[in-house]
Amino acid sequence: MDNTEKQEKYFEYNGIKFITNMTSVEHLDWVKDYKVHQDDVFIVSYPKSGTTWMQQIVSLVLADGDVDSVKNESLYQRAPWIDFQLFRQQPDSRTKLVLITSHLNYQMIPTALKKKMGKVIYIARNPKDVIVSSYHFHSYFQRLKVPKDFQEFLELFVEGDVFYGSWSDHIRDWYSNKEEISMLFVTYEEIHRDIRAGIEKIRKFLGKELDGKIIDTIIKYSKFENMRADPATNFLSLSKDLLDHDRGKFQRKGIVGDWKYNFLVAQNEWFDSIYQERMADFPVKFY
Ligand code: A3P
């Protein structure tokens, strides 16, 4: 793939790379003025941090664990990405759950959120696992440029030269503004360690009363294996033009610490030497 092809895949907005054909400068300008309703719930993350997992959990929490009421809706229909132009084609009937997803940086979100309209659930993940997950994602999500190898991708990630830009800027900006908006910050690792406690936290934040049986149901349907097998959550119905299903699965491994099997010792040391300094004052530690 040559440089021309690379440029066709991305464009820049505020110095950050976005995917051509999925969004545009005009659309990203439009997002800022989006009229947020008091009941809207935004799921926000840096890509590959467990966004779809959170879409499943939160949509089930909002539906009081009523699996039947959401089973015919894909995750995209339940919690569309405001970042993409497709968002504006959502039918107005999308009123059952008012769930919206975004990978946008804090500076680019609807300004109404900063006036405490709506709620935000931010999910963060160990950047090393994000890198590995994203590296694989690049090989089958057809809108992204396939990196030459893991080393090249690692360097691009550290430079913030990947779609949605720098991981550290993303998490820092959202985290440091968490008092400005109505926000719950959770990590992939904590949900993985204790999903019941994670759902409890989310339920409380959203002001929902759910009994233990309902929480059991949400746990069951949010399990990795379940989401991997369920057509509403596994993205297998998306065309090969978008996801090359022969080259990867959206629910790939779903574990904590997969980086240990992918980083060489030298790559890990190099990454640590940069990130330990870059994130030294950040209160949430991932490893
Ligand atoms: P891996 O590639 O490490 O397996 P996102 O939804 O933000 O794109 O994140 C995708 C990552 O979340 C993938 O990680 C995917 O497997 C993982 N994931 C998706 N559903 C999950 C689940 N139910 N439990 C645990 N991890 C899940």
From TrEMBL:
Residue ranges constituting the Sulfotransferase domain according to the UniProt record: 38-282
Annotated InterPro entries: P-loop_NTPase, Sulfotransferase_dom
Transmembrane in keyword set: no
Compartments it resides in: Cytoplasm
EC number: 2.8.2.-
Sequence similarity: Belongs to the sulfotransferase 1 family.
Protein name, entry field: Sulfotransferase
Organism per entry: Callorhinchus milii (Ghost shark)
